[in-house]
Design goal:
There is one protein chain. The chain is of the alpha+beta class. It has one domain: Gcn5-related N-acetyltransferase (GNAT) (Aminopeptidase), CATH 3.40.630. Helix content is 34%, strand content 36%. It contains 5 helices and 8 strands, in the order E-E-H-H-E-E-E-H-E-H-E-E-H. The chain has helices at 18-25, 40-57, 102-117, 132-140, 167-174, and strands at 2-4, 9-11, 61-66, 69-81, 84-93, 122-128, 144-153, 156-166. The protein has a 5-stranded antiparallel sheet. Strands 6-8-7 form a 3-stranded antiparallel sheet. Helix 1 packs across helix 2 (40-57). The longest helix has 18 residues, at 40-57. The protein is globular and about 40 Å long. The mean pLDDT is 97. The structure holds coenzyme A. Coenzyme A is lined by residues 30, 33, 91-93, 98-104, 127, 131, 133-134, 136-137. The site of coenzyme A has 18 residues, from strand 5, helix 3 and helix 4.
Length: 175
Amino acid sequence: MRIDTARLVMDEMTDADLPALRAILQDPAAMVAYEGAFSEAETAAWLRRMRQRYADDGFGLWAVRRNGEMIGQCGITRQPIEDDEVLEVGYLFRRDQWHRGFAVEAAKAARDWAFDTLDAPAVWAKIRDTNLASMNVAIRLGMTVRRRFVTRYRGVDMPHLGFAIDRAAWQARES
Ligand SMILES: CC(C)(COP(=O)(O)OP(=O)(O)OC[C@H]1O[C@@H](n2cnc3c(N)ncnc32)[C@H](O)[C@@H]1OP(=O)(O)O)[C@@H](O)C(=O)NCCC(=O)NCCS
């Protein structure tokens, strides 16, 4: 699996990407919406989970590379929202790479891949209600807010908003 955009390459993370993953998941500022920095064990578990997703589903959060360096993660995962399951675009970037349009560029490519390759009826983004930067990415992907729900994560009840774009809106936007 490999997706090329104007400035970025997205492909599967391997064990060699663990240092780059630490620079994101162990940064308290990047992980505010996840209730703080990950430990080493949580970081290793995250990578194992992504590799399991690649094996089980054929997709997951991929490495986002710029000039060969992993600067973020972005991709598609299956996610529960209350009793439903949706396809979600996810994005997490290293802090020194924010505000350069990389998250939007990668997330648009992942969104398009889900519509083109998985025949997705809709692509969602589950966003904690405090995460304005993430909401702005979702809005730039053409998503609108559809649902409110609470997700329990790391022992904390977190109010979330469900953003989505459905296939018809995506086709109208792309044509
Ligand atoms: C959410 C997150 C990925 C958003 O990243 P970002 O860097 O703000 O996103 P982008 O740069 O792609 O897009 C938006 C910004 O880039 C600017 N931009 C867009 N294209 C650009 C370009 N070609 N050159 C320079 N700037 C550009 C936009 O104007 C916008 O700027 P602004 O945020 O100052 O208004 C980032 O904050 C992050 O990694 N957060 C931590 C993890 C997280 O919470 N993930 C989401 C969980 S739901």
